[in-house]
Design brief:
The structure holds four protein chains of four kinds. By secondary structure, chain A is of the alpha/beta class. In chain A, 39% of the residues lie in helices and 17% in strands. Chain A contains 22 helices and 22 strands. Chain C has a nine-stranded mixed sheet, sandwiched between helices. In chain C, helix 1 crosses helix 7 and helix 3 packs parallel to helix 5. Chain C has a single domain, classed as Rossmann fold, CATH 3.40.50. The chains are: A alpha/beta, B alpha/beta, C alpha/beta, D alpha/beta.
Chain lengths: 662, 588, 349, 284
Amino acid sequence: MATVLAGNGAAAWGFRLSRVQCYPYYPITPSTACSEQISRWVHDGAMEAVTINAESEHSAASQIIAAGKSVRAGTATSSKGLLYMIEVLENAAGGGVPCGLFLGNRATGAPINIWADNSDAYAMRDSGVIQIFAADGQETLDSIIQGYRIAENLRVRLPFAVNLRGFTGTHAYEGVEIPRPEEVNRYLPPFVSLHPLFAPEKPVTYGAMLSAYPYRRHKRNQMAALSNACEITLKAGQEFAEKFGRSYGHFEWIGDKKADLVVALLGESASAGEVATRHLQGKKGIPGVALLKIRLFSPFPAKEIAQALHRAGTKALVVLDEGLHHGGVLPPLAQRLTTAIQLYLGGKGPKVASVIGGLGGSEVRQEHFQLMFNLADNIAEGNPYRPEPYWLDIEEDPIFVERENQVSPKLWRKWGEVWKKQQRKEKFCSPIPPDTNEIRIYSRAGQGAITSAVGFTGAGIQNGYQLLTVPAFGSERRGAIITTDTLLNFHNERRIRSFMRAWDVVILYDDTILYSPEHQVLDGLKEGGALLVNTSHLSVKKIREILNVGQKKVRVLTVPAEAVSERLGLKHINMAMLGALHKVYDKVPFEPAQGYYEKNVPRPREKSLEAIRLGFSETSDREIQRTRKESRLTVSQEFRDWRPEDHSQESWPSALEEVQLG
Amino acid sequence: MHPDLVLRIAGESGEGVITIGETLCKIAAREGIHIVTFRTFPAEIKGGACMIQVRLSERRIRYHGERLDFLICLNQEALDENLPDLKEDGVLLCEAECDLSGEPPGLTVYRVPFERIATREIGSRISKNIVVLGTLSHLLGLPKNKIEAFISQRFARKGKAVLDHNLDALQRGINFAEQHLDKKDSYKLPKGGEQKKLLMTGNEAIALGAAASGLKYFFGYPITPASEIMEWLAVHLPKVGGAVLQTEDEIAAICSVAGASWAGGRSMTSTSGPGLSLMSETIGLLSMAEIPAVIVDSQRGGPSTGMPTKTEQSDLLLALYGSHGDATRVVLAPISVSDCFRVTALAFALAEKYQLPVIVLVDQALSARLETVDPQLVERLPQGSRLCVEPGDGNQFARYRLTESEVSPAALPGTLGGEHMVTGMEHDELGNFACDEETHTAMTVKRFRKLAAIENDPLAQDLCVRWGDKEAEIGIVTWGSSAGPVEEAVAVAKNLGISAQAIVPKILNPLPHEELKAFLGKVKRVIVPELNFLGQLATLLRSTYRIPTIGLTKVKGVPLEPSEIVEKIVEASATLNVRSRKLYGRAG
Amino acid sequence: MYKVLFNRHIGPNPDSFLLPEPVLDVGDYGAISTKGLTSGHQGCTGCGMVTGTNQLLRALKLTGKHVVASIGTGCNEVITTQNTSCWGDVSVDHNNFPNTAATLSGNIAALKALAQAGAVSPKSTVNVGIAGDGGSYDIGLQALLAWIARGEDGVYVCLNNQAYMNTGIQGSGATPYGTNTSTTPFGKVIRGNQRTQQYILDLALAAGASYVAAACPLLHRDLMIKAQKAAAIEGPCVLEFYSVCPEGWKSDTDVFHEITELALETRSWILYEAERERSSNTVLFTLNYAPKKYLAISEYLKLQERFSGMRDFPEMVERAQEIIEARWFFWKPVLEANGIEWKEEARAS
Amino acid sequence: MEELDRSCSYLSGISPVWCPGCGYYGILSALVEAFADLNLPTRELALISGIGCSSRLPYFVKAYGFHSIHGRGLPIAQGVKTANPDLTVVAVGGDGDGLAIGGGHLPHIARNNVDITYLLFNNAIYGMTKGQFSPTTTLFPITKTSPFGLAGEAINPSALAIVYGASFVARGFSVKKEHLKDLIIRGMRHRGFSFIEILSSCSSFNTTDMNVARIIKNLQMVPEDHNQEDEIEALRLATDKEKINLGVLVRNPRPTLGDKFQEARQKAKGKSPVTVETLLNQFA
């Protein structure tokens, strides 16, 4: 039975199930929630570990390294926090300390940017840490458990890091299977300290200073240990699959077995790639396509990947990097793949083109993958291509250029020949029909929209659907307008984690959002979709007027959620809105969902449940009556129409006589 | 023997003219004679012409009389001013030194050297009025002992010396008259009834009526001619446990009334036109917040400061419509002093029962005039009280609950469980602000239906006075103090052989439609005499009933005279057979 | 702030109101063999730090507990672990330069976790962090103060030789006024170190340390008593050792004794300790040494070439003296109670 | 927690309509906490207000409330207290309400020493009408209706009240809630007219005059040894140009209007009971 967890929550479960004994932490967006969850468990006594409220990431890293010599230790961080750790993390690798890290990947700035890319993970490439890239919460949880298994292997004894893309991964709520602790215990044996510090009978010295000869020997051994991790990872994955039924290797091959065109990348962005790949697969005129989702980045499984590409007969490989290699020829992943192909396949390997995208929270969407496959196709046809990276979503330097004057003359002089020979092909770039249902909530920060969306996700998962909820996350103040998106996938056999941005339902938690010029709430709403507004005073007609809906086929519904909550004495309107959502969107049936809510709604439970029920029943697309608590005036039409008697209209036989005659 | 005696005493302010009149009235009232007085005030506090006219009658009267039977003048200026009003065969008592060169031949003249007697013989100019009294005692047959008793009562507090001084002056007056004046005319004090009468001014009647209706708190600001109400209450209201406060302005006065009334005490204020203008905003609040209050407006010449000491009936439209928005209120207009008393009581009854402001319109002439009233006045006063509840049921108290009767039960502050808001904003039943269309419509309807309910309330029945032949084709509609001259005029017209009838509604908002409709349905000409330029009642009648009216308006600062009305009646009777609307096209 | 109390008694003090029993004097232990630092280290001749560490480790080992030392990078680490280990019968965890206190913290957490798991007894081990003045006053200050603030149970020792010696004698936060170092050279315009030195024990006390003490290897009884007290007292305890450095101070290698004595007599190094009673937040200060005769600071400057420049500038010497007097003023109540003059004028004339 | 609950029972449950960041929230909370501290029954509380942002306050408090017309809160409160002396009457109003349109009432209510507590919310702007200058605007002279600066000098409300002879004058600050609560309690305990000026920032239209940072920087509590009967010293404190003095400036008890009424009744009452009939006799 899957539980609804965000990526951070899944990571916390990973540490918890791995029986981490020492967990120092220092907060940094977007991975803080993992530490928060563990602190909560430890303070509640649900998890037995020593947490340390460190004053910096540097100290947190020092602490896992110190403690990691005696017990199982781990921490979570991101971005600059990781960079601050790297100084000491090398001591973990050099000192052979098998501690664990969870990284919510985030840009490293400057300019400061709190959103996702792989810059921080790329920055730690040379610190000797095992780097695993997970694509979702489930993989994160599983990878952390496997990570300790790999790291503590006697042939490895190195620190490891599990990476998950910030926000779209760390803050995406979805169904995660939490393995049973006793099964994990069988898979992951207790931590054994090879050279215990706390053994008076055998004093040890860690971190001694070495001169050149012992130093170079030590480093060679360290490299060998890291190389061993490659094999051990595969083994750990296989064993994990045997025990838990979910298999993980060095990489995942998605798409055609024989694939002329391959796009390679790390981590969560594969969700969108998967949708695009499946869309292109088997299409007329399109050769075999596949997505190479690489999981183990360090040590890089070069040989295995080269073999896979060779087996698939790949002609062109496009590598997406969500980070840079400043001053380098190619970005890190592209560089590693190029080297691998060159080393193991020589001239027989596919041609490799590099694409940089997804920086600083940029979306990597389905259409980007379509473009990349298109590019690969061009390369496979023998057309020239850029030796240096292409960029995604840079208007002045696009992948495909139709006309010369589209880009600057300077650029055209440089790449005009390439662009002339390459063309954007409709068969690659046709729009992908949505295959899922999607719901978008516009709310104000602090209104509890995420809680309700997560509740809805849980109810849906309980009813056997795959759901994913991704709240937009930023540096917004309380009261700013934020969005929360939920995706429903009815194809149980396929994992879809990527939004098409075609909304079946759009929900406004606050009717003032209707007036926001920055939020065009009708954008992306499907024909026949529904718009649900929390309002006590706007009529459906008025809303249609404000939005200028016109003849567009859109259902508009309203719910007086604020009045409902106020009546019940609830602070937030989210529970009433949750009920209303069920009324608007009936694919997650209301009756069975209530069973889930009974166990999971926030306190006070009874009132929340009542709010859900009232929200459901009070949602309507009719013109609403004014709802102003009990003081609402209920008076008869007759009463309202009463006016003082008009005596002037009566006839006066006597006094008026003269006037009429005149 | 004349059934009526119209007497005027004129002189300079400070000469004790009014004391003479009042003494005369007092003695006459004790004799059971009906009295109506009329007096003018100079704009100055001392100095300037002043006079008091007293009409003494055997029957019930509402008018102070048009032509004088008896004129007493204390100086030349007064003589020149007042002589034209004296009947051709009237009596003149004047200062001996006055020049009577243009004197009409038919007069009976008595000349007395009041000034000399007072200054030379008594040695005090201010006792001149007592000398006059002594002279009058002889001429009109006032019993000496009654005058002495009155003087004793009046000067007792000032010490024996003063009292003796005045008694001496009285005696000298009587002596002079007995020695030098031969009674040549037939005017005597009219015959009195068996019942002693009470003598009071309109203002006093209002104050007394308020006290009798349970007034507890009075807030006011001095203004002529309404100040006497506050002055009287300031002395007497604390005796019955009430309180009077002179506030900083009329706004504070009416606001304090609003507060005190909301807190449960019967409260009122009195003012004149300028004050009512200031109070207009709060009248809207009282109407909106449904708080009872009684406001007395003693009208004076306007607009603006106008003529503070002169009478006029020009605040009718302000009283009816003043304040922005659809503000409801009741407007009452008494027609005589005894009416002032009962109408004030009615004002409290209606205000409390229907929780709205009630405006009582009187005018300077009515406020200031002394009139005799029956002591039975205080019996069977109109009664009405506020519908109060003690909720205490735990629910939020709905102050403005919509009910069948349109009157929402109130909870006075201090009542358990009755916490509520009253507000000048449009509100829902709980008193919380609400400005949606439904609430505003419903609440406005609620407030106006109270007025409709008042029309049918037993308290508001029989508020029309009618005189004359019920079949007459000439009708007169008037209001307030103009009723007296109209009553006289109808009688005069009858003597002239013209049949006319009159109706005087004492309630002007809501109008007594049943009675007015019946009246207007009978008559063919409608004369509307009133003391303003615009013809404010006529305007109201024309707009309400779409009838043509013949206006009779006067803005001279003095009351209408019956002869003016008779003139209009004659004029109207001449047009009865002419079928043209042109004649009646002009308003007012 | 905390309430200040003074111990009337001046001298070594085995008693503590935080402990039920006084700690033992070194001589009271009888024959318990301890190792301290073993031979083979690469410390300079006349190094006070090695002596201090040695005395520290011996004192801790005397208590019968296992000692786990988390040590920071610096002379002390480099000279004892190069290709080998001179740490005798204690376990050593060297991690990095800035994170001595954080490493100490990690090891304390590990001990706690192991104790939770029932693997070891929490009282069986003393966790001690050892760093130099650079690692304590400068780069490691954040970690140190945070460790104190967290209130973890351990001992932190700052081996203060008043400059970065391992990297070639650069000025640190603990370098005294007027000192000539390679980054604060005695120039023609700027004459030596212009900063007034900081005092780590003041910072530690302000951050909430349970016990702080200043010691010098010359008075080894006092030092070892303090080390034992720090090991026994619950909560974060911070010790600071006066560590003579002939190389950095440019003094003769055989005047270890004289320099330390002059430091004490001129009061440029004050031996004291302070313990904190947490419930009432009272800190009891004990002065462990008061010179009979106050020597002028100029005497102290004589033996060390690092001060050679300032000797010729009376106003600088005067300033150095003022710094000392200002700090000594704190002890006025104790001195008066013991009939000792505290004023500057009272110094030998 | 219990404390909070008790003061909450004085809230009507209607959510205030004030802007986010408005100082009036602090005043409301100080007021209900003062009620809770004094343990006043809600039924004996009467809150009277005029018009303005501050005058909306009675809606939010569970009590007998009267939201009247612009500037007239004080005379209405006078009427209420006169008619029912058992009520605890609190009048509230803003600087425009109390010092501009209703400014004429203040001296007389102070003179009469009506036993009410008057909270003057001084935010130095007309907030409800959205940003026109008020009688206390100084530092923020460019408003919607004074685009080229102000013509007049600002009024100092506390000084005015002292000069008018209010028997209790205090100045509070909406941010200093506990202090303000204490002032309100003292004002309500004072028998007679209690004038409390409450400085409060208008977060939407004037954050300059009542700038919280500026006031915090410049404020100073009235010295403990200040003689509250010394009106000259109080005036000096109220008009201090350097510092903003908070606290009780004047406390000078004297007979109230109610006392005067009672005295008048005693004096007017003769030996025999007075009825309408006896009143009638004087006209005989």
